[in-house]
């Protein structure tokens, strides 16, 4: 099961963002806990990439598509124009995966192997 929420049920020590987290996170934990790793939870809100385990489930927080909230322990919270991205979730052999994918134009792609099949150092 993949549960998709905007507000995460965990704190990341960014006070101005944490105060607007999911209400009743413990109620969600009670629903998720019996199923543990068979559940993944995808969130946004923080415009910052993070992951943890919540009630035995993989929990990911996706980066922003427009800007990134900076990690500041004291207000005021600020943002910066870091590279945007998204998180691609998958279920492979019964295990959840989460791959952070930056968007934009970057150098590459470059080959790993030369014409003879050897690794390029």
Helix and strand arrangement:
Elements: E1 2-4, H1 15-18, H2 25-32, E2 40-43, E3 50-54, E4 57-61, E5 68-69, E6 79-80, E7 85-92, E8 95-102
Parallel strand pairs: 1-2, 2-4
Antiparallel strand pairs: 3-4, 5-6, 7-8
Tell me about this structure:
By secondary structure, the chain is mainly beta. It has a single domain (2-102), classed as Transcription Regulator spoIIAA (2-Layer Sandwich). The protein contains two helices and eight strands. The chain has helices spanning 15-18, 25-32; strands spanning 2-4, 40-43, 50-54, 57-61, 68-69, 79-80, 85-92, 95-102. The strands form three sheets. A four-stranded mixed beta sheet has the order 1-2-4-3, with no helix packed on it. The longest helix has 8 residues, at 25-32. The radius of gyration is 18 Å and the shape is flat. The N and C termini lie far apart (41 Å). The mean pLDDT is 94.
The rounded Rg comes to: 18 Å
CATH topology call: Transcription Regulator spoIIAA
Number of strands: 8
Order of helices and strands: EHHEEEEEEE
CATH architecture assignment name? 2-Layer Sandwich
Low-pLDDT runs: none
- Total helix count? 2
Structural class: mainly beta
**Number of individual domains:** 1
Range of helix content = under 10%
Largest sheet, if any? 4 strands, mixed
CATH H-level homologous superfamily name: GpdQ, beta-strand dimerisation domain
> Which strand order spans the largest sheet, edge to edge or round the barrel?
1-2-4-3
- The fraction of residues assigned to DSSP E strands is 25-35%
Our measurement of the CA-to-CA distance between the termini, rounded to an integer number of angstroms, reads: 41 Å
Tell me, briefly, the overall form: flat
Mean pLDDT across all amino acids: 94
CATH class: Alpha Beta
């Amino acid at each position: 099961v993949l549960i998709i929420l905007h507000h995460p049920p965990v704190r990341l020590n960014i006070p101005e963002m944490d105060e607007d987290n999911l209400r009743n996170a413990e109620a969600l934990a009670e629903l998720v806990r019996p199923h543990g790793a068979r559940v993944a939870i995808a969130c946004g809100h923080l415009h910052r990439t993070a992951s943890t385990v919540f009630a035995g489930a993989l929990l990911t927080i996706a980066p922003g598509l427009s800007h990134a909230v900076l990690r500041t322990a004291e207000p005021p919270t600020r943002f910066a124009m870091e590279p945007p991205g998204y998180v691609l979730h998958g279920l492979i052999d019964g295990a959840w995966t989460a791959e952070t994918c930056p968007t934009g134009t970057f150098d590459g792609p470059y080959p790993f192997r030369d014409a003879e099949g050897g690794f390029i150092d």
